[in-house]
């Protein structure tokens, strides 16, 4: 359905003589494929609202798993971080990835790559580490670094 609508919409605009350089859609798999294969001349962006919603849902699910309740307080700030990254990086995708992944460290109280002021409030940090790290941090990382976002 969505793909057919997009095809018709694009054809309609191009038939009318419009030159389309950028297009923003949701994250439909078929749309991604279609844009990649049939419209290489256009920049394809995702609507950040859909991305943020996906993250929020996935973190919500993760936070319900055993020992992962500590993820919950981070959901809202993760969504905010997502909007902030989108708004502050423009089209620079490398910078996007860099800023986005600082979140995984931020939640474990490592702020090397953060741009915020010194924190003076206590947060519920998720313990990171291969051997003694928390399950919560592991699942959090899985969501934030999932291929779904690329
Ligand atoms: Zn930080």
Task: Explain this structure.
The protein contains six helices and two strands. It is mainly alpha-helical. It folds into two domains: 2-45, no CATH class; 48-149. It has a two-stranded parallel ribbon. α2 (29-38) links the parallel β1 (22-25) and β2. The chain starts with a helix and ends in a 6-residue tail after the last helix. The model has no long low-confidence stretch (mean pLDDT 88). Bound molecules: zinc ion. Residues 106, 111, 114, 116 line the site of zinc ion.
Number of helices: 6
What is the subunit organization of this protein? single chain
Range of strand content: 5-15%
How much helicity do the residues have? 40-55%
Give a quick set of tags describing it.
2 domains, binds zinc ion, mainly alpha, about 150 residues, two-stranded parallel ribbon
Tell me briefly what this model is.
This protein is mainly alpha-helical and 150 residues long. It contains six helices and two strands. The chain has two domains: 2-45, no CATH class; 48-149.
List the helices and strands and how they pair.
Elements: H1 2-15, E1 22-25, H2 29-38, E2 43-46, H3 48-63, H4 75-89, H5 93-106, H6 135-144
Parallel strand pairs: 1-2
Helix pairs in contact: 3-4, 3-6, 4-5, 5-6
The protein binds zinc ion.
